[in-house]
Design a protein that fits this description.
The chain is built from 21 helices and six strands. The chain is 59% helix and 6% strand. The longest helix is centred in the first third of the chain and has 27 residues.
Amino acid sequence: MEHQAAPSAHDGDPSPTIIVVDEERFMGDSSFARLREEGFEVRTFSGPADALAYLHRHPAEVVVCGLHMPEMNGFEFLNRTAAIYADIVRVLIGEREDKSVIHQAVAKGLVHNYLTRPWNYSSFRTLLKESLMKQRELREQHLREVLTTPDRLPSPPKFHVRLRTLLARESSSVQNIADEIEKDPVLVAKLLRVANSAYYGARSTISSVRDAVIFIGTEYIASLVMAIEAFHSVMRSTDQRSARVIDQLWHQALRRASVTKLLGTKWPGFREPNSAYVGGLLQDLGFVVRLSYEPERFFQYQALALSGEMDRYEAERKIFTITHDDVGAALFRFWNLPVELVGAIAHHHRAAGEDPLTQILQIGDILELGDATSAHDPDLDPLIVQWAEKLRLKTPKGLQIRRAEAATQAAVDQPT
């Protein structure tokens, strides 16, 4: 059984998620409450089976468990954890008399760090900080291998920068904007295709860039242009099979962006609907990077995801280790996109905390997919149901089952 964690704030980098198991034995200490106060996302479980079920669908950076647990011992639990997340930091808590056996586990690489009772917050915080630093170094090295090879690193969309500059001038007219876009024939073709697609619902054919700018709106035109450029620049030279998948990802991005844009305009107190729109367009660009530069591994991932053996996010971790949200966030940091947007994209399969943009991207993704079994913050499930009803969309798969189970239980509990 999972115990509710306090929401955490985050910046451009995902706040580390710490999984804590066997809390009855060592949660009397206030250490984990203090970690939450410092911005960590702490998920606590009373048993290893529930923790493993959570980890199969949600990323985490650290797992902490006791050596002596009733369902399975800490070694077995950490071994299963390592099979799900090879690079997760594994911390074991034991008694003084367990030191020799714990040292053997450390030597074999099963455990990264350990604490023996009695222990204090200062020692645990130092251990945690050192472990996360090592993990981050390994992840950054892997990301550099993925992104920073000179012939691989996609350039930031330069045309988008010029268009933003033009839009910032009060003297610029719709025609000025259209003239700038028309300098790129490939961009014109893609823009007109999008403007005439079902995602925008034009009642008559839009045949000019000027009409497209008016129809889409100057607030969103630069974002759409940036997304078109991003997909196009990352694609580089791909074979037909890869190009078809990238085209599918692009149309999925458009569908999702239409939902996130709607959520952004209706979300109470949220004043940046354009950020929600951009995030919806770009949050899966990491997949395009993978497909463009590692097509064979991408299709291995796709086959594994379609086999039904595991969900898509778990299949991606198994094949790539570093997932598309991390790849996309690293790329967008290089492109100097706003830190709030980078953080939300990095978190779109992780704990959302209280950040409305992250919540919007996750909810929009689930509503577009129509499937709540996709990796997301389970704390958002009630909001997903509310927004599905508010936007008159079908309740996503997975949540329908939970609602049916709740209704059945309510009927059973109803007094006769």
